[in-house]
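User: Before I run my own analysis I want an independent prediction to cross-check against. Here's the chain; please return only the structure tokens and, at the end, one sentence I can use as a sanity check.
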Amino acid sequence: VIMTVNSLVDDVIKPYFKTPKVTLSEGPSSKPTPRPLDKVYVNLLLVPTHAVNDSLSKAIPEAAGLSGSQHELERFMHAFAKRSEHCQEENIEIAQLFDGSEELMQSDDKKGDSYRVLVTASAGTGKTLTFLQMAAMKWARDGMWPQFTIVVAWPLRRAEVQKARDIVELLQLRHLGITDPCEQRALTLYLRKNPHKLCLILDGADEANLDDCSGYVQGVIRGESLKGCYLILTSRHSNQITDLAVSRPFDKHIEVLGFTQENVCEYVDKVFSLPEHRQKVTEELQTNPQLAALMRTPFFTAAVCDVLR
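Assistant: Structure tokens:
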């Protein structure tokens, strides 16, 4: 069984995640070209939610009572830009996401349970296109999270993911080609005996009505199916996720805050190959504080870079 599973991981699952690409253009006259994700990836600001709450308590009073004038708009954007500064000391790397989990999973209160991480973010902060793809690639290619035999991610917005009845069915939805009944049985048996070797990533819980998901998928999300596995659930902020976190508290709750100013500069350096293009964007950032604050959101960083090309 172990030999079969190892063969599936090395020959089928890891190659699927090893080479994600993003398409970038140097300008209207140049042809967009795919680039490996790791060549343009920039670390995101990932912080525990308590750090976010502390930073908001400092930033919101500065933004309170503003009427909307240009001057006060600048004050508002400056106040919320300071949120990133307050949080930077709490920043964690993707590889550190499960730090401390092994000790917790061995405790009497958690033994046999799943370890569940909730990752929340506002729209455009990079939780899907950068954070999740990079996490899967680092596991498949660079050996990150060596405690896991299998790391695999799915978008919850897909109806077939919501209706999956078991782990093999979920793996099939990634078009991994695990069609041999013997391989399917070996994989199921291995994961039943070694659920702690599996890390599931379910993306976009806000895009699905969790009540409409199959009992199996609901159980995985709530830590009641595949007990003992590791789960990363990502979502934008929603009442549904707030209710879930109250009824079935997560072991860790991380917020994706996007880019720091240093991250923005690093991204610009990576996506522009010509020095004059990098200089043009840098000058815009230095002379336009509103634009600099806007670009702390990765989606807008990419959009602004496209425009400035």
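Sanity check: The chain has 15 helices and eight strands.
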